[in-house]
Design the sequence.
RNA sequence: GCCCAGAUGGUGGAAUUGGUAGACACGAGGGACUUAAAAUCCCUUGGCCAGUGAUGGCCGUACGGGUUCGAUUCCCGUUCCGGGCACCA
């Protein structure tokens, strides 16, 4: 009987929908398992074969867990806000919602063909008001919270107000933008507006004037993870630094918890490392330096407090407020000129061209340990955003300071015994300290580091600094607060209106605040974000409704926020929403949260390491502090599926002709390689007729063939339209079936590894499924008998159960598929058509190839879905061998093998070896030194 | 520059974590069936050498060392490819 995959797959896909096979409900009786894929952005190009890789891998796991008796949640949805739909809208005027809906419909159609076990009743879309209701809600909660360092959690802002009313800022340990100091009386004396401004300094979602990454080409600001090498991640446009008032999220408050949490989750080491780098914890010392002949004092941050005796100059970041204070009248002209130069330089200039630049401020600082006067310089190599924006320069032991000192001829004092600093600085934190202080000099309180190791010196200095109140020990993080405003249309609107210039929250019960209609998706003529084009975008505080802008009176009707939220807003808590997607009273009910807890297995690309995966961990920790999420980490285990690259094909055109030469002969001509659509190439052989039809300019093409064929060249490249190497899963499904596609994608290699797609190999997977199908048939009759299985058959089956079970647990599907092939071949040869063997086989293959499994399961007389079957367990007793093949090696050199009874003990085997029973010709007169027996594997006889 | 991961046939990749390297699949070559094609099935397929032959020998997991009876696997050094961070003091 022919394996008619088209009919089978269609039938079961329809039946799964009709019978709601994959609908999941909370069931306290059963253990839960939550499998999640990073939801896709539905782009206009549709899915290519690379996209489903992770979905297939997680689907196999989800189905496997279900067969093991778990109540599995395996949802899917769409990250529907995004730039492409908005840019398409700008070009065509078509509303992004329409484009997005169309793209989603197309995605859904493609996904449905692959046979996933998604519970579509839980689908979410980030652009759906019912969904972004809770994105807006979370934002308001962040606005209404501050971060308490003492209790290490977010707390309601009301607690902070209470604290201010009782004791002002005294005894306050909260994360803040700048350190404020006032008494309770002073607080009470403040106006409402002033109080609001003070609170803004502490809120977790706060409005602040900060340096932002401004991308003029995109007309919006970008978060740090959206800027790569000084250009925008999307589009590669230049990015400049600009001071703007923006909403920010106080992610940095969670830096330590984000770091600590990594220890509790099961992610790859490299991904954790990436996040550690991004968080960038560094432990050091903040020290105060006085400015000579002035009352001014400033603070620097250093991880090398031990090098204090080697400081020969100080450096300020050009953007630092100290620059204005410390510049002397004589130096003002030079400094202004330098600042103008720095301002001209974009982020990209700084990265590509690292020349040494700087200017002397005219002021001197006093080394607190020695009283020495040290010149204060200004240079762009010091960053305003990190530490305090000011450093102490130790040219002998920091390569940047070294370059600077050499360039401007500043002194260099070596501090490590024996370190050669004639060519470069000695940056390593090792060696014995000297010159601290230098001979003949004395330091404050006779402090000396001479003779200590660097580690000891760092500790000693920290202690001294703390005791003498010269500064304090400080931990710095590279992780910055996230800029949360975007000057775009297609994003979540902020539920915020402005009264007297201060932001006010739209009442919680009025959420969601729906995105308004606009006639143009571009920024306004006055440079306001696209929402500035909306005519009805004002908040009436009397009626609590959105009203026409013309009614704004700044008394009861106020303008609404014009920015929208960034892409990561909607994707930061979607995994929680899947647990309870239709709840309109809360983001998630307590009951659903407590049942589903967090994601057990999360599958997605590693490109989100410093974006989504940081933000959603932060977001979840915040919700954890609020008591909304019961788990501090959202994703317990994370698997990064590798990208599937394209395999491009090339044809070689002889220069200035329309003649194409085959790969093997191309070196004889002067040729230009051109990409050719991989869909008209099969096994690297070009379909010449299809090629002529492909492009009008090729209609008259001529060919120089080898062996009557045109052979194309190939290369592995990113899968993209412009390389003509996109392979569409629909085409594969049409030609081979979804089960073949699923099997082949897994067979291609380890899920985590990047690998090129090569359609050529797919025949093997398809052939296997045919063989599997044929095991159940004799001609046109379906034959499954109730005969008792033989030991050989049982062995084949149990070997397979063992292998597949172990493989799935560790995501090693690529090695399970050969096991299926081997077992199928063995059983076909044994002509086994016994239910006791074939039934478990069908269950085993169900996660991989669900359609064929369902069909066979039904044919075997079952009335329920194979999804509700039970995963077979293997029995070791069928795997035990009667005899064990032992390899015999002499001095490690393998010679032959001998069968021993399986229960032979090592003493018996060794006796056989020593008794020269193992072919004496290799031993003869030589003496046996040692016999090493590797259990059930090898006898190594060491001879003289 | 720093950190992380990796390198195995013509190709994708296996190898029970120290025990017969190259499973399985693709591709290639040969054969069977067929008027023919498709489909299906069988054999060969890391390199070199010897033999009519079954077969036997040597080399071989990027390169050079080391530990071990035995190394793709562990250690040290080198080269190359990929990823992350990058004037972060």
Sequence:
């Amino acid at each position: 009987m022919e394996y008619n995959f088209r009919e089978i797959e269609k039938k079961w896909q329809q039946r799964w929908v009709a019978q709601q096979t994959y609908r999941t409900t909370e069931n306290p009786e059963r253990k839960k398992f939550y499998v999640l894929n990073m939801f896709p952005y539905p782009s206009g190009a549709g899915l290519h074969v690379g996209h489903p890789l992770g979905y297939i891998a997680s689907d196999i796991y989800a189905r496997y867990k279900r067969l093991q008796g778990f109540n599995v949640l395996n949802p899917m949805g769409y990250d529907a806000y995004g730039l492409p739909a908005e840019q398409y809208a700008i070009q065509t005027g078509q509303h992004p919602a329409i484009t997005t809906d169309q793209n989603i419909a197309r995605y859904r159609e493609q996904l449905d063909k692959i046979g996933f076990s998604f519970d579509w009743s839980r689908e979410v879309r980030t652009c759906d008001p019912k969904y972004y209701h809770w994105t807006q809600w979370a934002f308001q909660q962040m606005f209404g919270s501050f971060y308490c360092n003492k209790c290490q959690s977010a707390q309601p802002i009301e607690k902070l107000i209470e604290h201010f009313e009782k004791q002002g800022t005294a005894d306050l340990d909260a994360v803040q933008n700048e350190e404020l100091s006032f008494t309770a009386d002073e607080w009470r004396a403040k106006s409402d507006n002033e109080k609001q401004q003070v609170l803004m300094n502490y809120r977790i979602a706060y409005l602040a004037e900060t340096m932002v990454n401004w991308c003029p080409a995109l007309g919006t600001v970008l978060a740090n993870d959206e800027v790569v090498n000084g250009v925008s991640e999307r589009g590669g446009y230049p990015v400049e630094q600009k001071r703007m008032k923006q909403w920010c999220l106080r992610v940095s408050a969670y830096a330590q918890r984000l770091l600590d949490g990594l220890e509790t989750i099961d992610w790859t080491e490299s991904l954790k490392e990436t996040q550690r780098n991004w968080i960038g914890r560094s432990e050091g010392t903040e020290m105060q330096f006085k400015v000579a002949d002035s009352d001014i004092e400033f603070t620097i941050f250093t991880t090398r407090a031990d090098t204090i005796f080697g400081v020969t100059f100080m450096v300020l970041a050009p953007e630092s407020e100290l620059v204005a204070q410390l510049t002397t009248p004589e130096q003002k002209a030079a400094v202004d000129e330098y600042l103008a130069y720095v301002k001209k330089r974009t982020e990209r200039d700084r990265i590509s061209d690292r020349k040494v630049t700087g200017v002397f401020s005219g002021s001197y600082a006093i080394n607190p340990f020695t009283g020495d006067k040290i010149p204060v310089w200004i240079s762009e190599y010091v960053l305003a955003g990190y530490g305090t924006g000011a450093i102490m320069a130790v040219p002998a032991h920091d390569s940047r300071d070294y370059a600077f000192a050499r360039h401007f001829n500043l002194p260099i004092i070596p501090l490590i015994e024996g370190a050669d600093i004639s060519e470069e600085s000695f940056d390593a934190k090792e060696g014995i300290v000297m010159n601290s202080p230098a001979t003949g000099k004395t330091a404050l309180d006779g402090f000396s580091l001479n003779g200590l190791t660097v580690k000891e010196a760092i500790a000693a200095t920290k202690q001294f600094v703390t005791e003498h109140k010269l500064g304090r020990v400080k931990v710095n993080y590279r992780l910055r607060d996230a800029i949360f405003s975007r000057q775009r249309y297609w994003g979540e609107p902020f539920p915020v209106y402005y009264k007297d210039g201060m932001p006010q929250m739209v009442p919680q019960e009025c959420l969601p605040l729906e995105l308004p209609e606009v006639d143009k998706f571009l920024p306004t003529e006055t440079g306001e974000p696209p929402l500035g084009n909306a005519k009805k975008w004002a908040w009436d505080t009397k009626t609590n409704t959105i009203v026409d802008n013309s009614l704004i009176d700044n008394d009861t009707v106020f303008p609404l926020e014009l920015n929208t939220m960034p892409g990561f807003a909607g994707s930061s808590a979607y995994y929680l929403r899947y647990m309870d997607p239709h709840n309109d009273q809360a983001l998630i009910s307590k009951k659903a949260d407590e049942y589903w807890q967090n994601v057990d297995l999360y599958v997605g690309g590693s490109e989100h390491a410093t974006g989504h995966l940081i933000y959603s961990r932060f977001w979840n920790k915040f919700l954890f502090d609020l008591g909304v999420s019961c788990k501090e980490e959202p994703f317990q285990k994370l698997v990064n599926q590798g990208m599937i690259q394209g395999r491009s094909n090339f044809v070689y055109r002889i220069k200035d002709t329309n003649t194409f030469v085959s790969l093997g002969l191309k070196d004889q001509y002067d040729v230009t390689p051109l990409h050719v659509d991989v869909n008209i190439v099969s096994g690297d052989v070009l379909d010449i007729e299809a090629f002529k039809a492909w492009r009008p300019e090729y209609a008259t093409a001529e060919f120089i063939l080898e062996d009557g064929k045109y052979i194309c060249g190939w290369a592995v490249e990113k899968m993209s339209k412009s390389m003509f190497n996109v392979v569409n899963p629909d085409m594969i499904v049409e030609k081979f079936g979804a089960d073949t596609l699923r099997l082949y994608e897994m067979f291609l290699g380890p899920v985590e590894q990047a690998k090129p797609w090569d359609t050529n190999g797919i025949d093997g997977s398809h052939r296997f499924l045919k063989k599997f199908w044929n095991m159940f048939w004799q001609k046109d009759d379906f034959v499954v008998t109730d005969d008792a299985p033989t030991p050989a058959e049982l062995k084949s089956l149990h070997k397979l159960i063992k292998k597949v079970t172990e493989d799935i647990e560790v995501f090693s599907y690529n090695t399970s598929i050969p096991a299926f092939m081997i077992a199928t071949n063995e059983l076909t040869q044994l002509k086994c058509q016994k239910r006791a063997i074939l039934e478990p086989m069908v269950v085993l293959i169900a996660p991989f190839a669900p359609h064929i499994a369902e069909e066979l399961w039904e044919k075997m007389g079952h009335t329920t879905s194979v999804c509700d079957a039970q995963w077979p367990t293997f029995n070791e007793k069928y795997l035990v061998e009667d005899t064990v093949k032992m390899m015999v090696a002499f001095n490690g050199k393998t010679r032959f093998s001998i069968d021993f009874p399986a229960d032979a003990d090592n003493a018996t085997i060794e006796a056989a070896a020593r008794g020269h029973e193992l072919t004496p010709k290799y031993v003869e007169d030589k003496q046996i030194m040692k016999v090493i027996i590797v259990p059930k594997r090898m006898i190594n006889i060491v001879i003289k």
About this structure: Chain A has a mean pLDDT of 90. The longest helix of chain A spans residues 791-809. The two ends of chain A are 64 Å apart (CA to CA). Residues 360 and 377 of chain A are 4 Å apart (CA to CA).
